Amino acid sequence: MDLVVGAKRVIVTMTATTAEGAPKLVPECTLPLTAAGAVSTVITEHAVFRIVDGALVLTELLDGATESTVAAETSATYRVSL
User: Fold this and answer.
1) Residue 36 class from Cβ within 10 Å (0-12 exposed, 13-18 middle, 19+ buried)?
2) For 49-78, how does the pLDDT look when each residue is reduced to its tens digit (9 = 90+)?
3) Mean pLDDT across the stretch 22-33?
4) I want to staple 46 with a disulfide (CB 3.0 to 4.6 A). Which of 14, 31, 65, 75 is the partner?
5) pTM check: above 0.85
C-alpha cells in the first residue's frame, strides 16, 4: 500500500460492482486509507474515469457500454467528458 505514496500516477483497475451488484465507485471510502488522493485513473470493465482537479470525470466508455450503464453501477458523483 505504501508504494503509491509519492507516485506520479496511480491507475486502479477493478470491476465496477461487487459480487452482490453494489457499486464500488462510491461517494466516500469507508475503508482505511494509506494514500488519500493518490489515484489518478480508475478503469472498470465499462469505463475509464480520470481524477481532474479532485473530481471524478468519465472520459471513456468501453466495450459498447452506455452512459446509463455506467450511471447504474456508479454511486459516486462524476461529470462526463467523452
Assistant:
1) exposed
2) 999 999 999 999 999 999 999 999 999 999
3) 93
4) 65
5) yes
Q: Dump the DSSP string for the chain.
A: -GGGTT-S--EEE--SB-TTS-BSB-SS--S--SSTT---EEE-SSEEEEEETTEEEEEEE-TT--HHHHHHTB-S--EE--
For residue 44, which of 76, 15, 79, 6 has the smallest C-alpha distance? 15
Task: Confirm if 58 and 34 have CB atoms less than 8 A apart.
Answer: no
Residue labelled with grid coordinates 456508479? 74
Tell me which amino acid residue 57 is: V
For residue 11, which amino acid is it? I
Query: Whose grid coordinates read 457500454?
Result: 65
